[in-house]
């Protein structure tokens, strides 16, 4: 039996009991719940990753909804416990929900929310930051400087790659992949090659228009290509960024064979989910190809790195901070809270999870809808007409 976990309570007399497994940024999400008669309980336990037992203890005997995190394993056990406590809503504070067994949630009639849109640009900006840091060897150079090793300008000191005119490859050109592609094309005048199961017409139109603009100004136009296979992207691109969802089809999408297809001086960025790359194969590849560089926000066995990765000078590693801007994290908390509230109050589901701005306007009441419920169809939930 897990020990009781410490909690902070808001609005103790609220009718609906909503639990958040972590303190989340900002207070708007708390206020929105409290205004609608919720008692909000926030777990303040000093433990980064809560166990299933910890969360069962938090759910207790009566719980209407839970806001949880991507580090938690939301499967049969937790959905069964939530359902037994009368709960009908769960929301991840993340857009990805590979930690959630949606079939198990369906079985217990629990709505599963996620937080799309609000983190698109923030995550793309980190992928762009890692791309630049890897191309220009910023972390290595910073370490060199701090170690007191700089004794004067040299023609060969930390020579990296120029991005302008090179090709950026995007695997998974959805919301984040497309935003990243636009940043790299517009910001650094890179050509684009992408692979996705679906055509990204808006992205193609953007690159075409920007290319025409550059041409009209006497500059080299940028180009785009939709690759017919992922391997084509790996072979042709100089910088490759991974942005697919994690599911069975994308597990170890980048493996030993695919790493071997990439250019010797290529840069690989991962801000999607760790298991999209076979990290053991990546460490071996980094060892044998010192000019190949990676920028990683996510890891296969998070929070751990595979042995050897932390020693590689040609790897930049950051602790899953791609969505970590104040505005985004507060917005994610708001969307997660409104997903849970929407189901509790019987509101319909918002019609377009790519258009969540009305929920993020701090100066207006949010629409009476749940912003993004991934199993709305399976549960037959009504859709908002707004
Ligand atoms: N590192 C972070 O902090 C962070 C932050 C936000 C999102 N993410 C991850 O990024 C993922 C993408 O987010 P999004 O909002 O852009 O989602 P999205 O659904 O808009 O885009 C995902 C894209 O991947 C494509 N795809 C699926 N399978 C594919 C395959 N086998 N090959 C190529 N493309 C494939 C889909 O067609 C879709 O266009 C999330 O699922 C999440 O795991 C990570």
From TrEMBL:
Residues 32-348 form the D-isomer specific 2-hydroxyacid dehydrogenase catalytic domain. This is glycerate dehydrogenase. Belongs to the D-isomer specific 2-hydroxyacid dehydrogenase family. It is found in: Peroxisome. One of its GO terms (biological process) is oxidative photosynthetic carbon pathway. It comes from Cannabis sativa (Hemp). It catalyses: (R)-glycerate + NAD(+) = 3-hydroxypyruvate + NADH + H(+). One of its GO terms (cellular component) is peroxisome. Keywords: Glycolate pathway, NAD, Oxidoreductase, Peroxisome, Photorespiration. Its main location: other. Residues 130-322 form the D-isomer specific 2-hydroxyacid dehydrogenase NAD-binding domain. Its EC number is 1.1.1.29. The keyword DNA damage does not apply. The keyword Transcription regulation does not apply. InterPro entries: D-isomer_2-hydroxyacid_DH, D-isomer_2_OHA_DH_cat_dom, D-isomer_DH_CS1, D-isomer_DH_NAD-bd, NAD(P)-bd_dom_sf. Pathway: Photosynthesis; photorespiration; 3-phospho-D-glycerate from glycine: step 3/4. Signal peptide: none annotated. SUPFAM superfamilies: Formate/glycerate dehydrogenase catalytic domain-like, NAD(P)-binding Rossmann-fold domains. GO terms for molecular function: glyoxylate reductase (NADPH) activity; hydroxypyruvate reductase (NADH) activity; NAD binding. Coiled coil: none annotated. The lineage of its organism: Eukaryota, Viridiplantae, Streptophyta, Embryophyta, Tracheophyta. Pfam families: 2-Hacid_dh (PF00389), 2-Hacid_dh_C (PF02826). CDD domains: GDH.
């Amino acid at each position: 039996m897990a020990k009781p976990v410490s909690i902070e309570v808001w609005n103790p007399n609220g009718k609906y009991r909503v639990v958040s497994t972590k303190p989340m940024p900002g207070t708007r999400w708390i206020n929105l719940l409290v205004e609608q008669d919720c008692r909000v309980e926030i777990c303040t336990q000093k433990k980064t990753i809560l166990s299933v037992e910890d969360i069962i203890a938090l759910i207790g005997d009566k719980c209407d909804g839970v806001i949880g995190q991507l580090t938690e394993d939301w499967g049969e056990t937790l959905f069964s416990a939530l359902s037994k406590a009368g709960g009908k809503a769960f929301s991840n504070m993340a857009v990805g929900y590979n930690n959630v067994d949606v079939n198990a949630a369906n079985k217990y009639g629990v709505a599963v929310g996620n937080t799309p849109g609000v983190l698109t640009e923030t995550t793309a900006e980190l992928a762009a930051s890692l791309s630049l840091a890897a191309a220009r060897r910023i972390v290595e150079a910073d370490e060199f400087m701090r170690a007191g090793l700089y004794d004067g300008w040299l023609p060969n000191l930390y020579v990296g790659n120029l991005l302008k005119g090179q090709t950026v490859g995007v695997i998974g050109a959805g919301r984040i992949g497309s935003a990243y592609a636009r940043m790299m094309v517009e910001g650094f005048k890179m050509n684009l090659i992408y692979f996705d199961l679906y055509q990204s017409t808006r992205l193609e139109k953007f690159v075409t228009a920007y290319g025409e603009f550059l041409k009209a100004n006497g500059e080299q136009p940028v180009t785009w290509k939709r690759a017919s296979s992922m391997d084509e992207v790996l072979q042709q691109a100089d910088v490759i960024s991974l942005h697919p969802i994690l599911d069975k089809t994308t597990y170890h999408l980048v493996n030993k064979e695919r790493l071997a297809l990439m250019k010797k001086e290529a840069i690989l960025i991962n801000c999607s989910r760790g298991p999209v790359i076979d990290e053991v194969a990546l460490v071996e590849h980094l060892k044998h190809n010192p000019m190949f560089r990676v920028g990683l926000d996510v890891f296969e066995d998070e929070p751990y790195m595979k042995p050897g990765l932390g020693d590689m000078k040609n790897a930049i590693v950051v602790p899953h901070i791609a969505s970590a801007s104040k505005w985004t994290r507060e917005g994610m908390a708001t969307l997660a809270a409104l997903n849970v509230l929407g189901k509790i109050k019987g509101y319909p589901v918002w019609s377009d999870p790519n258009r969540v701005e009305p929920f993020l306007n701090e100066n207006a009441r949010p629409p009476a809808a749940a912003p993004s419920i991934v199993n709305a169809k399976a549960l037959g939930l009504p859709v908002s007409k707004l």
